[in-house]
Amino acid sequence: MDSSSSSAFPGVEQSSKSDNTSAPPINAGSSCGGGASSVSRYENQKRRDWNSFGQYLNNHRPPLSLSRCSGAHVLEFLRHLDQFGKTKVHIPICPFYGVPTPPGPCPCPCPLRQAWGSLDALIGRLRAAYEENGGKPENNPFGVRAVRLYLREVRDLQSKARGISYEKKKSKRKRPETAAFPVSPPPPPPPPTGET
């Protein structure tokens, strides 16, 4: 399947028009310096995400240019993507609310949403793509406080609804290995003798 002809996100149609109002497309080998065959999966996904966001801006009414895009538009994009999510997020009145592994497919009418981890990774890739395409870090709409707060809110809501902890695991520091038996310090040197 040719990744340039399909959208990374359902519902964000690829358009054949090129009116330069949205984000410039990322070429397959633009950020790795090598040919398309040496581009990593991450770089390919970042390119597809960037191009999909550009199409979203083109399809926006009225169409938006990247320079006029704000954190509010990024939030609108994330909410738009929710309609294509595959993660069931239980509401508080649902009997499966907070149950980590509900039995089989849940018969409840709770909504399907984009998983927090997917949104977090998407924003990370778009944030990097914005800066790789000439955007200034201080103007990056993907790094604004409102987007970070939204992601935190989604994480907390899904954590409670699905009974899953998203807390970072603290890495254990390696302690220096100690001998099986305590080692006593070496004896002090003998006192000097009175010889001259």
Strand content: under 5%
Contiguous helical run count: 4
Order of helices and strands: HHEEHH
Low-confidence blocks of residues:
1-8, 11-21, 28-36
What structural category do the secondary elements indicate?
Answer: mainly alpha
* Integer average pLDDT: 79
Helix proportion range: 25-40%
DSSP strand count:
2
CA radius of gyration is 26 Å
Largest sheet: 2 strands, antiparallel
User: Which strands sit side by side, in order, in the main sheet?
Assistant: 1-2
3D shape: flat
Measured between the Cα atoms of the first and last residue, the distance is: 93 Å
Structure description:
This protein is mostly helical and 196 residues long. The protein contains 4 helices and 2 strands; from the N terminus they run H-H-E-E-H-H. Strands 1-2 form a two-stranded antiparallel sheet. Helix 2 packs parallel to helix 4 and helix 3 packs antiparallel against helix 4. The chain is flat. The termini are far apart. The N terminus is likely disordered.
List the helices and strands and how they pair.
Elements: H1 41-59, H2 71-82, E1 87-88, E2 112-113, H3 116-132, H4 145-162
Antiparallel strand pairs: 1-2
Helix pairs in contact: 1-3, 2-4, 3-4
